[in-house]
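Need residues for this backbone.
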């Protein structure tokens, strides 16, 4: 059953009215305001954000609930602004009890420790941890009851662009939309079809992801260690005795990963000085190569990229999904003034001009931070510890870091 066959669901917030699909004078077929390509979390976010403005939306992509690539083991640290969007989309009530609000972050390097607390900046929380599975399920449920969204549970096979619309072919059907939104990940089909140039910086590390049961309750505390050229983070989950690990370290192939599983709980317990007591591995280890992906432009004629399709960053600050949501918030502010044609040249130029420089600052800023924290030379280590001690004893510097922890802008 497609979403258009389901009852309408009133989304929270203040939609700007219902926009009916237009009719192409050339073909007589329906022209939707936007077509989102990408069946995952970013695709669902994109479709719901556009639909909340009254836009009629096509959402292309197979369901991802049963993915076998380890996605279900991932967890997201949602910034307060990302949570605010979920509230406006009517999704947060479903997720709130399944989330964990991070109220304090402890950062360690050698013998130095810095505590960053939400209360220092007057915020309720630094981030809210949710699992990939819970977030995707809640978003898909919202889509099912959102009448302006039509779900096409397959990938498009071709993209053609014209002056006033674009066409996507899926199977033997042709669909038309004013805007094609590429939300299809780092290997973006839309980006390649649109001919957008991209490049990447390989960090020559892998992100090892795992879930542990802890001996002591985590208390909503996230902890991060910068040592030996590696970055290890333990992030609290909804269960007070479960944490998610993200360990940026030397690359591991599938065989090495399988061998590491036997002793990794004790290894992480020792490496974190038993911050949460004894750790026991739950589930399996997964690994993904760490790369920064950059695009020359976020837009092409009738096409815009959001999320990993347009940029990826090192995970040390938890910015990945939040950056994509900031893309959508930027587009949302532009769409309010271009609802008749969200894919117009003026609208796309505004998105590229506003969002492009913001992303570059975040990407290269995180790249510089990553380069500094992985340095193992004694001089670098001493400088890092001196800097951390300065932060620990300077309230203004802690507040500045907390503002960065609250999410990218």
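Answer:
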């Amino acid at each position: 059953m497609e979403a258009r066959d389901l009852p309408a669901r009133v989304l929270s917030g203040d939609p700007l009215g219902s926009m009916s699909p237009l009719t192409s004078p050339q073909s007589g077929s329906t022209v939707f305001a936007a077509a989102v390509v990408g069946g995952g979390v970013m695709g669902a976010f994109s479709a719901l954000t556009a639909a909340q403005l009254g836009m009629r939306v096509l959402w292309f992509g197979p369901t991802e609930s049963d993915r076998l690539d380890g996605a279900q083991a991932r967890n997201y640290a949602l910034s307060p602004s990302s949570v605010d969007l979920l509230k406006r989309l009517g999704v947060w009530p479903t997720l709130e009890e399944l989330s964990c609000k991070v109220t304090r972050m402890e950062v360690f390097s050698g013998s130095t420790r810095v505590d960053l607390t939400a209360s220092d900046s007057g915020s309720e929380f630094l981030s809210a941890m949710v699992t990939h599975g819970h977030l995707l399920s809640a978003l898909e449920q919202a889509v099912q009851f959102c009448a302006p969204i039509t779900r096409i549970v397959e990938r498009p096979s071709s993209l053609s662009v014209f002056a006033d619309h674009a066409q996507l072919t899926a199977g033997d059907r042709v669909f038309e939309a004013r805007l094609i939104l590429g939300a299809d990940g780092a290997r973006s089909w839309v980006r390649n079809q649109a001919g957008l140039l991209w490049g990447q910086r390989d960090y020559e590390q892998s992100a090892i992801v795992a879930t542990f049961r802890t001996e002591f309750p985590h208390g909503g505390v996230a902890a991060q260690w910068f040592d030996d050229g590696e970055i290890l983070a333990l992030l609290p989950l909804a269960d007070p005795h479960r944490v998610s690990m993200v360990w940026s370290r030397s690359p591991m192939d599938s065989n090495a990963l399988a061998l590491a599983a036997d002793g990794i709980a004790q290894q992480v317990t020792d490496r974190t000085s038993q911050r949460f007591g004894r750790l026991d591995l739950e589930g399996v280890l997964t690994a993904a190569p760490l790369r920064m992906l950059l695009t020359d432009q976020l837009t092409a004629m009738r096409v815009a990229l959001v999320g990993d399709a347009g940029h990826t960053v090192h995970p040390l600050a938890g910015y990945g999904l939040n950056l994509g949501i900031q893309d959508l918030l930027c587009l949302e502010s532009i769409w309010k003034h271009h609802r008749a044609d969200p894919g117009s040249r003026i609208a796309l130029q505004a998105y590229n001009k506003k969002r492009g420089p913001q992303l570059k600052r975040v990407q290269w800023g995180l790249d510089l931070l990553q380069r500094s924290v992985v340095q193992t030379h004694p001089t670098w280590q001493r400088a890092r510890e001196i800097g951390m001690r300065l932060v620990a004893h300077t309230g203004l510097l802690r507040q500045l870091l907390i503002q960065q922890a609250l999410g990218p802008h």
